[in-house]
Structure formats: structure tokens, C-alpha cells
């Protein structure tokens, strides 16, 4: 883990995996810039108002707003070191759809466009590592979920999975640095001492196979902080790959 201070932008940090990563990043002293629709909700989770946490209000689908969190507060010509992307929609049953079926697709598109505009129009420099929370069950290289979960993933979660597939493709087809994180079915709470197993896929196929049922949002956020966000400037062995996380 790097000892240098990072500047990290957060899209989708008011709960779940994003909040877990944000808490650790703030506690470690990194400069964190979080975009949220209602900053007061996130501010309430940090009552001590840490100086290294900057909150900005806005929609993650608005290119101009997203661009406003992608440069360092101390130097507007330098892009942030990393972007933690964990936005998502709410799945509604029994229709098995989401409140916004394109939430991730539009979010990634806005992020990539914002980075391109900052470089072209503002002369911003840098190549942030984009760490994206996706999902298991959408691999093109084989089954990465237990057989018991296949009906659930292909029926009940079809809409959100299609959204994440498109978002992932945008990254694989682009030129930005990225790591896609695909957790197993997410749970709340912590299980101290529970080992995290890592499944790795590159463009050519599966490099390390691990299949499991569950993992907590807290463990996913912790893993992302420790392995991606805290040392983003020196790269990552997971860069350009999809990483499955499970217990």
C-alpha cells in the first residue's frame, strides 16, 4: 500500500460499498471528493466534518457536474488519482426492473465524457484509476456464480445486469485505466476474519477462478480501498480486469 496521499473522487458513496470505501479513505487522510444528490445525508455520517472530505451536490449523469469533482482541489489542471464508482438503481419487484434501468450505463458515459472534456478543453492531465462496482453473473467467459443462483441472476436481476454489462463494455472498449469489481450477492454487516476470495478475468478469459455465494458491502469497500484506491498512482495488478469478490 502506498504511503502517499491520494485524491479520490466518489460517485455513489452515500451507502453500501461506496460508503465503506469512503470511510476508510477519509480515515487514512486521503483527499476525498464525493458527489451526491443530497449532501446532508452524507454529511450526517461524518459529524466531525473532516477537512479532507469535500461534498458536492449534483447528479452523476450530468457531465458538467461530474467534471467538477474530477480535478484536485489544490490544482485544477491535475486530474484526481482515482475514481470510485458505485452508483446503482433500486430493483422493484414483482416487475423485476429498476427505477432507472440505465443508471450505470449513463453514469459511466458521463464519467468518460467528463474526463475527455477536462483534457481537451481545460488541459487537465493525469490518468485516474476508475474502480467500478459491478456484479457477478455477467461474465462472458463462463459461470462465475453458484449453480443455485443462476435462475435468480438471469430472471430477477436481468435488467440491472444488462445495465452493468453495457457500463463494463464502455470501459473495456475505452482507453481509461479501470478495474471492474464484481461482488457476489451483497449482505450487510461485518464478519471479522472472513477470508475474501478473488476471481480474476482479463480480456482473454479467466485467470483465477473463485465462485461463492455472498460477501458484505463492508468487505467489498475495504478490499477496494486497500487494493485499488490507496495505491492508485503506482497502478494495480488488477488494472484492465474484472475482479470477482466472494467469501
TrEMBL record:
Chain segments annotated as transmembrane: none
One protein family per Pfam: NAD_binding_10
Domain NAD(P)-binding: 12-228
UniProt protein name: NAD(P)-binding domain-containing protein
Gene3D superfamilies: NAD(P)-binding Rossmann-like Domain
Protein family: Belongs to the avfA family.
SUPFAM superfamilies membership: NAD(P)-binding Rossmann-fold domains
GO MF terms, alphabetically ordered: biliverdin reductase [NAD(P)H] activity; riboflavin reductase (NADPH) activity
Record PANTHER family: FLAVIN REDUCTASE (NADPH)
Top-level taxon in the UniProt lineage: Eukaryota
